[in-house]
Amino acid sequence: MLKLSQFEYSPNFQSLSAFRVLFALYLLAQFAGALPFYDDFYAALGIMPLQTLAFDTSIAGVGSLMPLLRLVDSTGLSAIVPVAYPLSLVALAIGFRTRWACAIALVLDGYLFWRNPYLVSGAEILARLLLLWSLFLPINRYWSVDAALDKQPRRRPWPALPFIALRLQIASLYFFSALFKLEGAPWRQGYALAWTLPDNLYAGTPLGLLLADRAPGLLSATGYLVVAFQLAFSYLIYSPWRNELTRAIAIVGSVAMHVSFIVFLKIGGFPYLCLIMLLLLVPDRWFDRLLHRRRERLGRIKIYYEPDCGFCEKVSLLLREFLLSPTVAVLPASADPAAFRLLTEHGSWVVIDPEGKPRLKWRAVAYVLRQNPLLAPLGYISDLPALRRPMAQLYDFIGERRRTLGAVTRRVLPFRSDRPPGRHALALNGILAALALLCNVISLDQWAIDRPRQEIHSAAYRGVRSGIDEFFAVLQIRQAWALFAPVPTHWQWTYRFRAARRDSDAAIAVDWPFAAANADGAVQFNRLYWRQYFSRFDQFSDADWAALDDYLCRVAGRRAAPIAAVEVSISRRPVPSPVPGGSEFTVHRRLACGGASS
Predict the structure, then answer these.
(1) Closest C-alpha among 285, 243, 249 to residue 3
(2) What is the mean pLDDT of residues 546-573?
């Protein structure tokens, strides 16, 4: 009879911490990409004024959360988001007051999420969920300011429920993605990938077009393999039989799948986020094996700081945390007579390398920097002969002010330990996890594709279902992993934007902030957020179109005046054409700037 080993289900603190760092950096990079267009996306004069969003009551959650959005905008708090959000992510990356940083990042991310739902893709949904589950987890046990100043054992226990909730979320992403695919004839009959790769908005890469044209059989087999792999993923990760092997197969297979998304599709950050998420499934045992030699070598280093100098101790602990290894001894110099003599004679901390050689002042700092692969160049450069004297002076300058700095660090960087969530927090975590699973199960029902949903369910049922969706959305756990499923994207999209002068009706060349023009007047979008927004034009309400018209007139008017009109032409036709269930969709609007649109 198979025995379940403790290793498969034990908490992986190093994996959590590595995930925290890369996840925060990912969110920073995504926000940096959107920041140049912040006013276009979220401001009153952008594509989605708050009064326009208020009309989009068909989007689950908007109606219930509108009072909060109005409060944030009316108090001017929205103006601090471009600064507060990245600061919270920096704090999350370095693990400074990690739980607070995560909570603030979740709130601000939620504001951006709901302030313009048309920009939301699977990546934004997954990121918000990962922030939510991270609130209940010890994501700061390694490589963090909190860990450096926590004197309790790193591997002290933590309640199992938050880990179960997180793993349930990851399993749901793969499992329900496969179920959505099985609902669609293109996936069941093997031509889904051949449809997807020619799509010129979300795919259309040269290699993808070549495969769609030359290797339909390979794509068909790959499609079936993807579905089978997603169904088997959770078992492979948590298999009680030869778990290290099956888990490695699952992780390698998932890496290959998401890398193929990067190569063949144009879907922004989603595959990168999934690759980062896979770190959560790496056992700490693997980290220990990978870092064993480094930690064994660095473990022979000793750091001695000035006794009774809180600033000196905390700096030593921070340097150990981020540059060395948890096994490095950090001790007051009074613990070693030789080290105390060196500290007294030179007015310097003392770093003893693995060979027993002492290093002092900035040269000791440079030595410690060189032990970290990322900061090693700084260590080598700052230890060049020409820089040794000024760097030593910098060290002395800081050392002379260590008492003042100690008063600051007592307030900003106190020694503290992270406490596990209490009973009420754990109950909330469990309820949200159960509801998230229920949301995934229920979400399958809305994708019946053989007949319109209106023909399947009564009006009363649809009303109840709308209320359920609103409930999940307000709790921030609504999700449906219909990624390129049941029917994958299979379109040729064409977008044209034209501005005309009032005096001659001649076309004006406008440098639209969202796109670059082709020779034939069509445009290609320069950010996924713009592609996401304009791909949903068939969902726009009259208020959405009116806001977009006003925005385009303002943009064109900055370039040339007087502007008579702005024309928007959008077409979406299925490829290959014709396809079952595919039909061309076109929109042509001419807005008389300052007047009415048609």
Answers:
(1) 243
(2) 83
C-alpha distances in Å from residue 77, one per residue of 18, 61, 85, 111, 138: 32, 21, 12, 10, 30
Look at residue 453 and tell me whether its pLDDT is greater than 80: no
Pairing between strand 302-305 and 329-332? parallel
CA dist 120 and 112 (Å) reads 9
Least confident span in 103-112, 242-251, 523-532: 523-532
b/e for 263-292, b at 16 or more Cβ within 10 A?
Answer: ebbbbbbbbbbbbbbbbbbbbbebbeeeee
Distance from C-alpha of 309 to C-alpha of 407, rounded to nearest angstrom: 10
Dist. CA 319–CA 372, nearest whole Å? 10
Residues 6+ positions from 307 with CB-CB distance below 8 Å: 332, 333, 334
Sign of the Cα pseudo-torsion (308, 143, 388, 405, in order): negative
Tokens 């998401």 — which residue?
Answer: 258
pLDDT-derived band at 1 (thresholds 50, 70, 90) equals very low
What spatial distance separates the first Cα and last Cα of the chain, rounded to whole Å?
A: 72
Q: 580: pLDDT confidence band, cut at 50, 70 and 90? A: low
Q: What is the rounded distance in angstroms from the CA atom of residue 184 to the CA atom of residue 484? A: 10
Half-sphere exposure of 590 (CA within 13 A, CB side): 5
Q: Within a 13 Å sphere around the CA of 409, how many CA atoms are in the beta-carbon half?
A: 19
Higher per-residue pLDDT: 499 or 386? 386
- How do residues 337-353 score in pLDDT, each as one tens digit? 999 999 999 999 999 99
Q: Are 358 and 342 in contact, with CB atoms under 8 Å apart?
A: yes
The ranges assigned to domains in the chain are 6-284+420-474, 491-592
When comparing pLDDT for 66 and 454, which is higher?
A: 66
**What does the alpha-carbon distance between residue 75 and residue 83 come to, in Å, rounded to a whole number?**
16
Q: Give the pLDDT confidence of 270-297 residue by residue, as tens digits.
A: 999 999 999 999 999 999 999 999 999 9
Output the six-digit token pair for 320: 């150990």
Reported as type and span, the H/E element at residue 472 is helix 459-474
User: ∠285-291-294 over CA atoms, to 5°?
Assistant: 150
Query: What is the rounded CA–CA span in Å between residue 256 and residue 260?
Result: 6
The tokens for 129 are 């969920």
Q: Report the C-alpha gap between 167 and 170 in whole angstroms.
A: 5
pLDDT at 516 over 90: no
590, pLDDT greater than 90: no
Q: Rounded to whole angstroms, how far apart are CA atoms 530 and 479?
A: 22
The residue count for the chain: 598
Give the residue carrying structure tokens 């990760």.
237
What's 452's DSSP letter? -
Tell me the DSSP string of 315-375: HHHHHHHHHS-TTSEEEEGGG-HHHHHHHHHHTS-EEE-TTS-EEEHHHHHHHHHHTSTTT
DSSP strand E in 245-404: where?
Answer: 302-305, 329-332, 350-352, 358-360
